[in-house]
Amino acid sequence: MALDRGLVFMSDTRTNAGLDNISTFRKMHVWEEPGDRVLVLINAGNLATTQAVVSILEERTKAPEDREPSLMGAPSMFQAARMVADVLREVIDEHAQTGQRADSTFNATMILGGQIKGGPPRLFLIYPEGNFIEAGGDTPFFQIGEMKYGRPILVRAYDPTLSFEAAMKLLVVSFDSTIKANLTVGAPFDYLFYETDSYKVGHIGRIKQDDPYFKTISQGWSNALKEALDSLPDFES
Q1: pTM for the full model?
Q2: How is the beta sheet containing 189-195 ordered, strand by strand?
Q3: What is the pLDDT of residues 74-110, one digit of tens each?
């Protein structure tokens, strides 16, 4: 999510290959060079694909002089997004050796955001085909994975002037709405705040299912929805 103050990221950690095969994997990955750049990558989709992409990108950052191109050497966020898109497309093509397309079981989508010195904070949604779009005034936030249940509250309540703390509350409500309707999304949730022109990772952490704040927001939102519904006039037949 892009705010006047900076960028806010949040991701769940649940992956599943059927109801009897549910696991927890981190979906948020961070690269930081204090004073120069912060890049945050969030993934959704096929686990083998996303892990391969992250592993390739991570390996290239270990020895930039030997492994080009590297995210740590990208001159701009746009070029960093191109690197991620190229690797994602290549991994999908490599896995789909039987001729399957990017909409197959190897599908994966990613969000890349952050800031590289010399440019503004930017946020990109990267598709499995290797193309991508950038967040802007008309589309200030991106969602990937299971999004339909948590989207309405974001559309109604988003405001670019939100503080990081208020944006966090909004994202927690969005995720809570999703996990109550879909078993493929679940806690714990990873989050990160990035303040414009800080060139360092801001507050970063994880919210577990039994976290007191999460429980308070979940119950409070449920009660508020019921009270709002009760306050509306009944239908007259």
Answers
A1: 0.91
A2: 6-11, 189-195, 204-207
A3: 999 999 999 999 999 999 988 766 555 545 578 899 9
